[in-house]
Specification:
Layout (H helix, E strand, L loop, with lengths): L2 H38 L5 H37 L2 H7 L8 H40 L17 E10 L2 E9 L5 E15 L2 E18 L4 E14 L18 H15 L4 H15 L3 H15 L5 H27 L5 H22 L9
Antiparallel strand pairs: 1-2, 2-3, 3-4, 4-5
Amino acid sequence: MTIITRYLLKELVVPFTLSVAVLAFLLVTQQALRLIDLLVNQGVEIGVLARIFATLLPAFFVITLPVAALMATIGAFNRLSADREILALRAAGSPTRRLLWPVGVFAACLCAAAYALSLYGQPWSGASFRRLTSDLLKQHATLAVVEGTFSEALDGMTLYVERVPSPNQIEGVLIVDERADGSEWLILAWRGTFLNGGGEPGASLRLHRGSIHRTQRDEADDRYQIARFESYELRLDSSRLGSAGEPGGPPRSISALRARADEERRQSGGVSAETERAIFTAYKDLAFPLATFWLGLLGVPLGLSTAHTGRMSGFGFGVLVVGAYYLLLIGADTIAARAWLPAPAAAWVPNAVLAAATMLLVWRMDRGAPRRG
């Protein structure tokens, strides 16, 4: 490894680390109010919050690495150009393209890390997050309740509350219970408390000062009953409390999705929109980490071209590039939804555009540069 290569890699590591730190700080800041509410008002233990936050990190880094790679190369080459070091290398007969291979190795390593996180880290993260949130909902059922909103957090029931005054306490309760066959229960109560029963968290909901309205329809007649109560304990299926958060099976592979699409073609002559959407999402998840490599290389010409306007200008261009890439992702979603291209091809469109733009700017990078006579 030459001195220039080691020096360049050192220049890349510093802005990369700073970029990751800044993005992580923004993530924590964005969620700070919610975390404080869970800790102070809902009584959630800080250790549980730390574990939930840790399960989100793989997904966070998959999104962060492309941005950090771009900012690292922009920052490094912006400084090298501003300090006339790039000019000195060109005057010595060393074209800037010779510096691309250390950048390429750096970007390829980040790309490999992004793929590892996407293929292995995110599935583990998703399963762990669902498991932790499911357990948390069983301990603090009111976390799944939003004041003034109809919720289906209780499986088989629709719940509406006016206010959540404290953990596991609700006021102004309306419940539509459809678990019983052939009947529908409407339960109104002034106040309710989620209880731990039989060693199972969230096993029942004790309601106070309310009424039960029951409608039962059959072939003979329709019956409507009203019962008033001072205290009523509604049994809940704690194993299904917050069932949306339960750990599911592993994400379907591309081969499994294509097999499902083939089966749908044989049965109905076409592929359902849900399956097409799932195939596009799977290919998009496969294509996205590759953007880390192309954005890392793209930062070289951007850093050089913005050296005369200052480092902040270079970072501003970087933000615009990231925004443009996400617009391409949205465009690819539209292309796939309208079937202008097959889902696999549509998923790779953003990377194709990014690769073409990168190679064009790299090719133009040394045009007009001074050459040794």
